[in-house]
């Protein structure tokens, strides 16, 4: 026997039955993004490796340990995208979008890749829904992005998600904080892991998101960045909070939201779900402001703010909610005798042209087995087509949820089904 080949580790197949939740979240997000004026951008799944090294940062776990990097046949170093902000910024610069409009709102959905240690809610291929707004340095833009997520979670019916916000300051006040942080870390240098010893020299902020237990304890005792903010950053953060309050959005200030990517300035935030299904992978989304990224990638000096949501995690939560997604067949046509098979096929074809979801079992088989199939697909009605129905043009519509069969003329079947209530 030939040996079976398994799918890549940490990468999931999403089959019918499960995909309906995904489609529901994607549809809901698209509808909401359009209300907020965000247009969809689609970028390649791979990018020049340097794009992520320069934006996400060399000392981050994402770039340092988790990227799928390879050389193409032309000797270029490419990486599967580990996130969507840098590719979107690259496209924004490459197409000189700033010359077409001063304020740009984009969203994207798609697979991202990180070679992570897998567990529930953490995969090597995962999916993000992201939104990025370029061109506004105002706190109102930070708030709009967070409001977008709040409204998405509400529309999806996801409760028990808390919002943590922080400010990482800017190039004026960050160095002073960094100095304080280095002071704290140096006092514990012997206890830090080998990676963090390097980070301490090259990018001390990244010590704060190390996953090693001992480093995390040292990070817990680190000074708060909020105490080091300069006046403009302090005012920006205060204004974000006032505006969030005015919209009735609840949040907590958490000075530990460092985000694990280098490009952030000022506001950062994370949406954290309390549900046990996610285990420790409880962050369903995160983002923040990155006012210097576009310029640092060779683009114009354009401020930006954005968010990335973990679609896999949102779907895990939604599946737990017990809601049903997807649309079952409105009608299942069962064939009573072989002589009716062609007519059943033609009837199904005609009804589908008229916009109805119709199934029949192309294998034929006994009426009993066909009814079993009707039950399995969750059809709202069944109709048995045999010689009597064909010659009389009349049939019985049987509600699968129970109740009396309804007599129907075959010629009026589409109208009747269109008028019928969907299954409860
Ligand atoms: P991030 O926090 O790295 O941010 O990822 C955003 C979200 O993607 C996370 O909150 C999480 O829900 C999900 N996620 C991340 N890694 C995995 C994984 N291995 N498996 C499953 N889900 C995962 C970013 O990527 C930024 N680009 C967000 C952003 C947009 N900031 C500004 N604009």
From TrEMBL:
Q: What PROSITE patterns does this protein map onto?
A: AA_TRNA_LIGASE_II (PS50862)
Molecular function via GO: ATP binding; histidine-tRNA ligase activity
Kindly list the positions annotated as binding L-histidine: 83-85, 114, 128, 132, 259, 263-264
One family from Pfam that matches here is tRNA-synt_His
List each copy of the Aminoacyl-transfer RNA synthetases class-II family profile domain by range: 1-328
- List locations, semicolon-separated: Cytoplasm
Q: How does it assemble?
A: Homodimer.
Task: Tell me which HAMAP family the record gives.
Answer: His_tRNA_synth
> According to its UniProt record, which protein family does this protein belong to?
Belongs to the class-II aminoacyl-tRNA synthetase family.
Descriptive protein name: Histidine--tRNA ligase
Question: Which organism does this sequence originate in?
Answer: Melittangium boletus DSM 14713
Which gene is the coding source of this polypeptide chain? hisS
């Amino acid at each position: 026997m030939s040996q079976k080949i398994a799918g890549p580790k940490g990468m999931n197949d999403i089959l019918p039955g499960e995909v309906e939740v995904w489609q529901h979240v994607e549809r809901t997000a698209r509808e909401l993004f359009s209300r907020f004026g965000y247009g969809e951008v689609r970028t390649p799944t791979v990018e020049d490796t340097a794009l992520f090294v320069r934006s996400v940062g060399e000392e981050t776990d994402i770039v340092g340990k988790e990227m799928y990097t390879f050389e193409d046949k032309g000797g270029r170093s490419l990486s599967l995208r580990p996130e969507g902000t840098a590719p979107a910024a690259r496209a924004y610069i490459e197409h000189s979008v700033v010359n077409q409009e001063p304020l740009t709102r984009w969203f994207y959905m798609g697979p991202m890749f990180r070679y992570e240690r897998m567990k529930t809610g953490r995969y090597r291929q995962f999916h993000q829904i992201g939104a990025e707004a370029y061109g506004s340095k105002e706190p109102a833009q930070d708030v709009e992005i967070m409001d977008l997520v709040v409204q998405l979670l509400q529309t999806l019916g996801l409760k028990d998600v808390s919002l943590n916000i922080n400010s990482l300051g800017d190039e004026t006040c960050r160095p002073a904080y960094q100095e304080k942080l280095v002071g704290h870390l140096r006092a514990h240098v012997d206890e830090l892991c080998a990676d963090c010893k390097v980070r301490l020299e090259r990018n001390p902020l990244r010590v704060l998101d190390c996953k090693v237990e001992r480093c995390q304890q040292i990070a817990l005792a680190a000074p708060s960045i909020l105490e080091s903010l300069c006046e403009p950053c302090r005012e920006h953060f205060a204004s974000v909070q006032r505006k969030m309050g005015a919209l009735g959005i609840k949040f907590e200030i958490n000075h530990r939201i460092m985000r694990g990517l280098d490009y952030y300035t000022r506001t950062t935030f994370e949406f954290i779900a309390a549900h046990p299904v996610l285990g420790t992978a409880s962050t369903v989304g995160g983002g923040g402001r990155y006012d210097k990224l576009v310029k640092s990638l060779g683009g114009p000096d354009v401020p930006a703010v954005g968010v990335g949501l973990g679609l896999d995690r949102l779907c895990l939560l939604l599946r737990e909610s017990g809601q049903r997604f997807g649309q079952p067949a409105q009608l299942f046509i069962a064939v009573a005798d072989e002589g009716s098979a062609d007519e059943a096929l033609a009837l199904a074809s005609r009804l589908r042209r008229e916009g109805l979801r119709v199934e029949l079992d192309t294998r034929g088989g006994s009426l009993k087995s066909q009814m079993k199939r009707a039950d399995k697909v969750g059809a709202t009605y069944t109709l048995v087509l045999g010689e009597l129905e064909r010659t009389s043009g009349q049939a019985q519509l049987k509600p699968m949820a129970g109740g009396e069969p309804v007599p129907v003329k075959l010629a009026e079947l589409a109208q009747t089904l269109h008028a019928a209530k969907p299954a409860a």
